[in-house]
Amino acid sequence: MLFNSIEFLVFLPSVFLLYWFVFRGRRLQNLLILIASYIFYGWWDWRFLLLIVFTSFCSYGFGLLLEHYEGHRKLRRTISAANIVLNLLILGFFKYYNFFVENLDLLINSLFGYHLDWVTVNVILPVGISFYTFQALSYSIDVYQKKLPATRDIIEFFAYISFFPQLVAGPIERATNLLPQFQKSRFFDKEKAADGLRQMLWGFLKKLVVADTCGSVVNEQWTHYDTLPGVSLFLLGVLFTFQIYCDFSGYSDIAIGCSRLFGFNLMRNFNFPYFSRSIPEFWRRWHISLMTWFRDYIYFPLGGSRCSRGKVVRNIFIVWIISGLWHGANWTFISWGVFHATLLVAYILLGVNTKYPHEVAHGRMLPSLKEWLQLSFTFVLTVFGWIIFRSESLSQLMEFMTAMFTHPFYDASSIHGRVPLCYGILLLLVEWMQRDKQHALEFSSNRYFSKRWVRWSVYYVIVLVILYSKGSSQTFIYFQF
User: Positive or negative CA dihedral for 35, 36, 37, 42?
Assistant: First the structure.
């Protein structure tokens, strides 16, 4: 089920009313969330439910085993490793089997002239498998590390894994944050629910107006990029930069806001990343739930930054190659990971300070000249990174980059997407004004929106813009991951 669908507009208020007025009490509410989550997920294909149930059951069982063998260190390590391997094998088969077989087939064919047709299987990628697999893994790892006790309530655990607002595209919640919220009573909070609706509204604006209108141009223009001048190709990269941000952060805003309607607090997943002064800061603000997952479960165990310079470089490249693979089975994603790893290493080797005590232009309306140059440089680097990410193959990437720097630089007749480009710029201007808030429609401490009629005027304008936007409806980009 899509957030931007008629079905969801019926589904959400129905579940909301049942949750607060019919299913009274924590256990019944957890059961309703589980049922609703399976309906939400099974709307695409009921067969996907078999996999999420299996993943949930295995992680639940391994958690109990880890707690049962509390004093057996080696056995607990074996149990934890078995659960990690099992989850990664499931993820690897569905997400990477065809990729590795196809590349092995190319290698065997180039060396021996023989095709491996007999090992090819048409594997369908279940929606959101990377997200709920990592969520299940974090639970078992945290139980192993004794950060939280294993839960014995199977309903609350299955609801934690499948919680429908963030099931298919995050945020990737830690059990230490979300599971305890299933274990205590929840009460309706009018202010929290109202703020959740505001955040959902902003998320829908980002997705339906900016992301989808940008996406319409990007998808159409990308098919004949070889005919466009250099500036048009760069602007195409800028449009995709707006598209992927508004698409993914829009989903996160809807998920976080939706969860607040039911009394849950999900972690923040985006912190206005395009206002970053460096690439390291950008990755502290973009897809925070995934970046902190890699940091805590891969980067730190490898030694993090508390080791020799050579090992730090090694650790960064390992994390970012894995991050590229997490996003998909394509060499362009791996190249994207290597690109950002190289940039991060460059910042370290050059000794650039990338830790800032406050957000950019703290206490001021406009950034300083130095901050403006930092913002612009970082944004351009991210645009090139997203061009790598958007490319369908390495050959297409090379052709795109070559065309950008060798084609005639400017041709006004070939520049498309002026309207979505303006949408993206206007959205960034609004977020700039609210950059110290949790989301752009948080008006709690803004004196300009203290009057109710002003706030409601903003809401009505946003709804009208959404209703009359001309972008063709598209699925969320991160559903494929």
Answer: positive
* Tokens encoding 441: 């429609």
pLDDT in tens, 258-310: 999 999 999 999 999 999 999 999 999 999 999 999 999 999 999 988 888 89
The token pair that represents 193 in the structure block: 């629910």
First to last CA, the chain: 16
State the amino acid at position 389 in one-letter form: F
Q: What is the separation of C-alpha 285 from the centre of its chain, rounded to a whole number of angstroms?
A: 11
Positions annotated as catalytic residues are 327
Token pair 């603000």 is found at 285
Provide the residue count of the chain: 481
Q: What whole-number distance in Å separates Cα of residue 6 and Cα of residue 43?
A: 13
Q: How far apart are CA 29 and CA 18, in angstroms?
A: 9
**Within a 13 Å sphere around the CA of 226, how many CA atoms are in the beta-carbon half?**
6
Please name the residue that has the structure tokens 């990690």: 84
Residue carrying structure tokens 């990343």: 273
CB atoms within 10 A of CB 262: 23
Q: What's the pLDDT score for residue 445?
A: 64
Does the predicted TM-score (pTM) go above 0.85? yes
